Give the backbone structure.
Amino acid sequence: MKEHFLQSREWEKYEQLEGHRTFRLEGEGFRAMVIVKSTPMGKYLFCPYGPVAETKEGLKRAFDSLLELAKEQKMMFVRVEPTLVLTKKEMTDFGLVKSHDLDPAHTWVLDLTSSKDDILDGIEKQKVRQWRLCEKHGMKLETSRDPEKIGLLSELLKKIGDSRHFTPQDEGHLKNQLKAGFATLYIVKKDGKVIASQLVHDYDGVRYSMHGATDDDYKRLRAGAIMQVQAILDAKDEGLKVYDFWGMTPSEDKNHPWYGFTQYKKSFGGRQVDYAGTWDLPVRKFWYKLYGAVRGIKRGLRR
């Protein structure tokens, strides 16, 4: 059974570095790594991009095992994100309730098993041209696995967050991803100044493009695209089979908040992959309903 890296032992190590308790379950036709998460109203089990199962029967056994563990640990509910896609009715027949998606229900991936020339032919020509002229334009690409260099990325993320009014991921979380041993930091410099950076995760033949940022003051140089092309080609050279751009929307609505970066990801070539999305399996049903009601009120207040 092929699993997403959020189900890997490497990601489990990262969650433990973050101070979270984890469990592993395995049975006939399924595997699952779950993380204990806390809310003001109680705790729940979260199974990111899992359980891993290839059949409906395996998934049913996984849900039964997760429910048993949740009852033993006195959890309020179990939150799952199966990579096996079933119909809405099949999911609700398991007793699951649709939740808001924590991890993307759709992603964009690029096949790396074709030749390097074919991969470059599938990328928007302007991006390839800029990548080829990178050094001529005074840019230098570097990679690092040193957790102490994560500030190069977090500073760019903070700058973008300040200008676009959002809160970027905490620097400590990003540092722990490097400490866990599965991440690589890409860095683009112009005249010694860091103008773009990106964190990628490699697992089981897949490179995942995760957190990235480009200095808006150097937007015309398109350093982010250059960095992405290099990360793709490096993954190919390292024998990886797939490049996952991590999240997209299938919507063609130009006003969708994800439309712009989805079109950007598509410009590198590739195809869409769909997951089941995020679902909840209530355990303590009264408290779960109360939890849902409180979250609904909070969402309403934020509007």
Summary: The chain is about 35% helix and 25% strand.
